Amino acid sequence: MVTTQARNRTMKTNTETSRRKQRWRKNVIRAATWSIMSWNRKKAEILLEMEHHKIDICALSETKRKGKGSIKVPGYIFVYSGVSQQSRATAGVGISISEKLEQSIKDIHYISERFLKVTLNTETGKLHLFSMYALDISKA
Asked: Does the domain spanning 30-139 belong to CATH 3.30.750.24?
């Protein structure tokens, strides 16, 4: 038979553990990578999956998006680097960053259509994010 004191201790321990987990979750950044084979046709699916899995940052390759820049999409900022507007849409990289981290974006370097760097200011210092797309030897 469980005494009232033992039950209260268990409840207190569970509450403390729950609070600790909540504090820990606030400081966690979930990151992922994904070869998407075209942003334009799959945007809704990509955003839905990122939201479902609670992903804060996702490095995307094969976006096949032309130009360089960033756009706001529901819940995220999508930073991308692709081929010039006159070229056929191939390769391309991007990084989707949760809106909650928008104020942390410090710097964006559009290095090429295959390489993108975004720097975030975090509580613990700078966080450098890279999205790269390597050449497929069979297509060279």
From this structure: no
